[in-house]
Amino acid sequence: MSELRFVGDAAALPDHGFGARSTTWWGVVGFMTIEGAAFALGFAAYFFLMAHERQWPASAAPPDLLWGSLTLALLVVSELPNIWVKRAAEREDLAAVRHGLVIMCLVALPIFVTRGVEYDHLNIGWDRNAYGSITWALLLMHTVHLITDWVDTLVLAALMHTRHGQKGRRFVDTSENALYWHFIVGSWVIVYLIIYWIPRMTA
Asked: What angle is formed at CA 72 by the lines to CA 57 and CA 117, rounded to 5 degrees?
């Protein structure tokens, strides 16, 4: 029986890929699935508590719209540089990625300002009643995700300005970090509607 032999040089093959070809992509998608389920449980708890209260919001005025709406506007606008840096990463354009990551680090700063003010304009304390607790919990959940991705962006920005930034896998990391920012923005749209508009619809 003749023996089949395959001879080839794999050295020229890329050691990274984007999208579903990347294990990083699958990790990020898995993480977003888990965190999406956590948000879903939070939303379910919100509506469960609302169904068992005679008045919603309970013993409080609805949260002020201004600061939450500003956060929403800033997050939506942040998608412009986020999409740009994701595309630059997939082109493996090092200079553009370096600039884009720095911009994303800076773009998050005014979002943290409006988010911080939001807590002071919810018109209820976290420990006052069930409505206050779940409202603060949803806002805190999103804030934790926001901070997590910002820290990841800071680390990537630093790495891309060193010799590590010339490695192809760092471009993949940048692309998937941008994917997670999509999740941050999308999840806030839902949290924003629940925190700021459901109380206005039921008051």
From this structure: 65
- Inter-residue contact 71 to 118 (CB < 8 Å): yes
pLDDT tens digits, 5-22: 555 544 454 555 666 567
**Is this structure's pTM higher than 0.85?**
yes
Give whole-number Cα distances, 151 to 21, 40, 123, 176, 203, in Å: 25, 24, 29, 14, 38
Neighbours of 94 (CB within 10 A): 16
pLDDT in tens, 122-155: 999 999 999 999 999 999 999 999 999 999 999 9
The 10 Å Cβ neighbour count of residue 6 is: 4
